[in-house]
Amino acid sequence: MEKSTNRQKYLVLVKLNPSKTLPFFNAISSMQSSPMDGINLSGAYNVFGNWDMAIWFEADSNDDAVHFVGEKIRVIDGVVDTQTMPATTIKEYM
Q1: Distances (CA, A) of 67 to 8, 37, 47, 77
Q2: Do the beta carbons of residue 59 and residue 3 sit within 8 Å?
Q3: Binned average pLDDT, 10 residues per bin, the chain of 94 residues
Q4: Are 91 and 43 in contact (CB under 8 A)?
Q5: Starting at the edge strand that comes first in sequence, how are the strands of the sheet with 79-87 ordered?
Q6: Least CB-packed of 1, 18, 35, 55 within 10 Å?
Q7: How many CB atoms lie within 10 A of CB 69?
Q8: How many angstroms separate the CA atoms of 86 and 8, rounded?
């Protein structure tokens, strides 16, 4: 049963060890859309620049977001650093 319909959106940027990109991609690709209670994944993207991957997700609470990043993302082999930011929707374009 879903806790909330108004979940907070988050963006987590991930920096990878260049030799571990494929294992990270495989781990993210096999992750379920709801990898733990209170979390729903929206999308994972390759990005260029200072970060290698961007993952959008929704969480029921800040605590859920912190646990997700710490327990599911940072533990993947090859993750060097993460930066997580809450995001507030100004306007959705569809």
Answers
A1: 14, 10, 24, 17
A2: no
A3: 68 96 94 97 95 97 96 96 94 85
A4: no
A5: 39-46, 53-59, 8-16, 79-87
A6: 1
A7: 22
A8: 7
Residue 92: both structure tokens together: 């959705």
pTM (global) more than 0.85: yes
Residue with tokens 């988050």: 10
Of 52, 61, 37, the residue nearest 83 (C-alpha): 52
Please calculate the CA angle 52-46-82 and round it to the nearest 5 degrees.
Answer: 35
Say if residues 58 and 52 touch (Cβ distance below 8 Å).
no
The domains found in the chain, sorted by start residue, are: 8-87 (3.30.70.920)
